[in-house]
């Protein structure tokens, strides 16, 4: 019994030291679903890279935060921030009223839109032209919600957007809807796909990405907003857009 | 062989089913679990229609797909299992070798990988619809396990049974069909029931290939409404109810064929 008490005391003391060591600068863990090039993806060295990652690193630097990234599946990424498994999400998350009701967002940092990718032979130029056919999107994304809005088109949801493109390459679905930068990567820049797919029309939604934090975590939002403002003022985001070939 | 003799052989061991101890009384474990799960869902829907009623309304077609995949895969797996099991005990070296190789390879690869592989790799050669390739993948995987169950069941039948049948003038095939297999079924049924339940739950893995099964419908609902906890509660309860329902059917079937225990 005595030994147990001693052990507890030692552990408690150790814990104090550890937490003291991390007190400044504040360390936060940020989740990202690294299957969404060029915004966030895993490179050949198994490192999470992309525009969002560089952007978040720059924001954290300006805001005086120490950031660790955590690769997390998109399905359940919001549940994780709610459960406190990480402090924030930067993963091409579009700010929508439904999401704002459940989570807090920073100020928008990138403007994008949804766009349709189809096989080269396809004549249609918008989702409504694909009536009676299947259109794929990643589960729980704004792309999936856009497809669902169109009557007569069957939505197929995938765990990762890459699987949807793979299914389209196999000829099982007639289109994929996703964010424009990702569509450009898959349709025009990926060797295996660039001869098979084309982007049709222009992006048909106006969306903005924001960093997500747990509802009520106003301190972190304020801190991140400060960082975003500093990054934008220093034009670091413009450089990053150029680096990752965003429009 | 006369039909009379045949009948006698088949009927060996048949008698009134004796209920198992666990099935006696009003509050059996099964009843508590089954009606408890149904009651819980009913209570949740009644007390909080939003989101629970909405979830219930959203998933029925997913339940249908889960049934479709499970039943299709189990029927196919039983056929594959029977062939594989007979192959594993066959004296024909080729047949035996193929069956053994199949079991060894399939047993060593995770089901998720198999589903993925059959859908995307085979998809480049023949275009199989997602639900069908899900059924094939599940059946190929569980057929291997089933094969081992069948083999063990057949091998459990005493050698004397076979010798007796042969000495009655039956040939090898008749011995297998009329003497060995009917007895083996009694041994095989409980583990097959087990495999069936496992297959039902593993069918949730097919959502990786965009098959809109119960789990995927739930995930679609959760990811749009952000009601993860509530949705997974309902999904878990529905899986539980379906599983208990099937375990009851298997239990009844077991009692029908069971020898006095």
Structural class of chain A, please? alpha/beta
Helix amount of chain A, in percent? 40-55%
Total count of helical runs of at least 4 residues of chain B? 11
Backbone shape of chain A: globular
Count of beta strands of chain B: 0
What's the alpha carbon Rg of chain A, rounded to whole Å? Answer: 21 Å
- Percentage of residues assigned to helices of chain B: over 70%
The gross shape of chain B turns out to be flat
Quote the distance from N terminus to C terminus of chain A.
66 Å
What Rg of chain B do the Cα atoms give? 22 Å
List SSEs of chain A in N-to-C order.
HEEEEHEHEHEEEEHEHEHHEEEHH
**In whole angstroms, how far apart are the ends of chain B?**
30 Å
Oligomer: heterodimer
Task: Tell how many strands the DSSP assignment of chain A holds.
Answer: 15
Q: Pair with the most extensive interface?
A: A-B, 24 and 20 residues
Strand-residue proportion of chain A: 15-25%
Q: Could you spell the SSE succession of chain B in H and E letters?
A: HHHHHHHHHHH
Instruction: Determine the mean pLDDT of chain A.
Output: 90
**Number of helical runs of chain A?**
10
- What proportion strand of chain B? under 5%
Which segments of chain A are poorly predicted (pLDDT under 50) over 5 or more consecutive residues? Answer: none
Keywords (chain A): Signal
Main location (chain A): other
Family (chain A): Belongs to the bacterial solute-binding protein 3 family.
InterPro entries (chain A): Iontro_rcpt_C, SBP_3_CS, Solute-binding_3/MltF_N
